[in-house]
Specification:
It contains 8 helices and no strands. The chain is mainly alpha-helical. Helix 3 (about 45-60) packs across helix 5 (about 90-120), helix 5 (about 90-120) packs antiparallel against helix 6 and helix 6 packs antiparallel against helix 8.
C-alpha cells in the first residue's frame, strides 16, 4: 500500500517556481525528443499522402485570404483550457506532467513529418503556420500548468477546502490575463499567418 503513495509524492509540485519551470521544461524537451524520433518512422506511403494534402492545401490557400475565426479560437484556447480543467481533479497531479510532455511530442512530431516531406521547406512551413501560435500559447500553457498542478495537489491532499475565498478570487486574475493574451494572439494569427502561409507555400510548391 505504500508504493502508490510514494509515486504520488514524486509527482507532487515543487515549492519553488523555478524548480517547477525546470521540471516542465525538461518534460517538454523529453516530449520533443520522443516526437522527433517517432516522426522519423513514417512510411513512404504516408509521406506521399502528406505531400498530396499539403499540395492541395497550397492550391486552396492561394484563393483564401482569411481564416475561420472559430478554428483560430479553438486552436489557441484548447491547450490552456485543457490544462485548466486538469487542475480541477486530483488525477491532475500526474496528468499535468504527462500532458506537458505531450505538448512537446505533438509539436516535434509535426515538425519532423514536415521535414520528412519537404526538407528545409518543412521548417519554414512550420514557422509560418505555428510560430505565432506557439509564441502566445506555450507561455500560457506553462503558466496554467503550474497552477493546475498545485490545485490538483491541493485537491488530492484535501487542502482545497481550507483555501479562503479571497485567494480563490485572486487566482482568477492571472487566468484573465492569459485569456487576454490568447485573444491578442488570435488577432495576430488572423492578420499575419494567411499572408505568411501564402508566401511560404508559393515558395515551396
Amino acid at each position: 500500500m505504500r508504493r502508490p503513495h510514494r509515486i504520488l509524492l514524486v509527482l507532487r509540485p515543487p515549492q519553488r517556481p523555478r524548480t517547477e519551470c525546470l521540471i516542465f521544461s525538461l518534460l517538454f524537451l523529453m516530449g520533443v525528443a520522443a516526437g522527433h524520433v517517432v516522426g522519423g518512422f513514417i512510411t513512404e506511403a504516408q509521406r506521399c499522402d502528406l505531400y498530396g494534402y499539403l499540395f492541395s492545401y497550397a492550391q486552396s490557400a492561394a484563393f483564401r485570404r482569411t481564416v475561420p475565426l472559430a478554428g483560430v479560437l479553438f486552436s489557441y484556447f484548447r491547450g490552456p483550457i485543457l490544462f485548466f480543467c486538469i487542475g480541477l481533479a486530483p488525477c491532475g497531479t500526474w496528468l499535468v506532467p504527462l500532458c506537458m510532455a505531450g505538448q512537446g511530442f505533438a509539436l516535434a512530431f509535426c515538425l519532423r513529418c514536415l521535414m520528412a516531406v519537404l526538407g528545409r521547406g518543412g521548417v519554414l512551413l512550420a514557422l509560418a503556420a505555428l510560430g505565432v501560435r506557439c509564441l502566445f500559447v506555450l507561455p500560457c500553457i506553462f503558466f496554467l500548468a503550474g497552477r493546475s498542478w498545485a490545485a490538483a495537489d491541493r485537491l488530492r491532499s484535501g487542502r482545497s477546502a481550507r483555501t479562503n475565498k479571497k485567494s480563490r478570487v485572486l487566482d482568477l486574475y492571472p487566468i484573465f490575463i492569459c485569456g487576454i493574451a490568447l485573444l491578442i494572439g488570435c488577432v495576430a494569427e488572423i492578420s499575419l499567418v494567411p499572408q505568411l502561409l501564402t508566401r511560404v507555400l508559393g515558395h515551396i510548391f
